[in-house]
Amino acid sequence: MVRLLFLACGLILLAYLVARLGVGLILDMLLSLRWSILPVFLLYAGHQAARAWALTHCVPKRGVLRYLDALTIRLSGEAVQFLTFSGPILSEPTKAWLLRQRGFSTWEGLAITLTEFLASSMAAAAMAIAGLGYVLAAIHPTGPVRVAAIAILLSMSVFVVLFVVGIGARLHLIGALVRGVARLPLVRDRVQGRIDGLPIAEDLLIETLRDSPARLARIMTIEALGQIFLGIELFVLLAALGEAPGVANVMAIEGSTKFITAGYFFVPGQVGVSEGTYAVIFAVFGLSAAAGFAVSFVRRIRSIVTAGIGFAALSFLTSLGRPSGNSVGSDRGVG
């Protein structure tokens, strides 16, 4: 019932945006994007391929996770995220479960998928911080634009600091957060006894990100490549709309929209919220709000197509038998 209420609110917001921006203007924008559809799909495929590649490097022992398996697991997670409207809350555990089907232990799988997720988030945050830093230093925006840019910059900087300090000092921040949530009355009974192995997952995560500098460098380089694909995708969409915001602005817009929309995963499909976020951020950077709406719509379509492919991949993976001998941590006694 609560999800239906959020969906209804999203649909109301979507209807308001369409009425506010104008149906005719939105349709004109969408028609202008026709030639960009193929490049957008190819670039998004590049993004997914890069993240799957990074996933193979997040395994403690190299060569254990095949790239094809990593790609199908990656796409399966995208399907779960889009179809269940749960964001990373269900998609990351689903990837961990699929990794278990490929021979890893439960907590190894969770460590691998969380390592990739955090590395990707760090790469996106770095992109946004660089872009926003340039905007504030070189363009000197004023008024609400400056306030919004500083707010986003500070929030992402806090995330980066927590990430670096937590990994560097071997702090189990994820475990502390999960245990805090697990104490809530409505959650306690559902998770009791199910998070006992979380410290093992965090130890493996820290081992990958802190104790293997060369592997961390490879992971972050690949994740940066994945974010570059998304930046180029946004640049292509803006070029099709006749907008030319500059590379720094594209980086800032891409990073900003990613982090803000992620906070609204509880809205089914992010209906209305995604379009509204893009419209507001585009307006902040001096671009057309209708252009932001159109870009969000096209990105929603390619996500739907990706979710369809991911659902097929999920069906394929769940139909396979579990291979033996892949676990890299069976000696840890985690099953």
> What is the molecular shape?
globular
What is the residue-averaged pLDDT? Answer: 76
Given the helix and strand composition, which structural class is it?
Answer: mainly alpha
Helix content: over 70%
Oligomer: single chain
Distance from first to last alpha carbon: 36 Å
Q: Which features would summarize this protein structure in a list?
A:
335 residues; mainly alpha; 0% strand; globular; disordered C terminus
Q: Care to describe what's here?
A:
By secondary structure, this protein is mainly alpha-helical. The protein has one domain. It is 78% helix and 0% strand. Helix 6 packs across helix 11 (213-240). The longest helix is centred in the middle third of the chain and has 34 residues, at 106-139. The protein starts with a helix and ends in a 16-residue tail after the last helix.
Summarize the structure.
The chain is mainly alpha-helical.
Topology, element by element:
Blueprint: H1 2-21, H2 23-32, H3 37-57, H4 67-84, H5 88-101, H6 106-139, H7 143-168, H8 173-182, H9 185-191, H10 198-210, H11 213-240, H12 247-262, H13 273-284, H14 289-319
Helix pairs in contact: 2-14, 3-4, 3-11, 4-5, 4-14, 5-6, 6-7, 6-10, 6-11, 6-12, 11-12, 12-13, 13-14
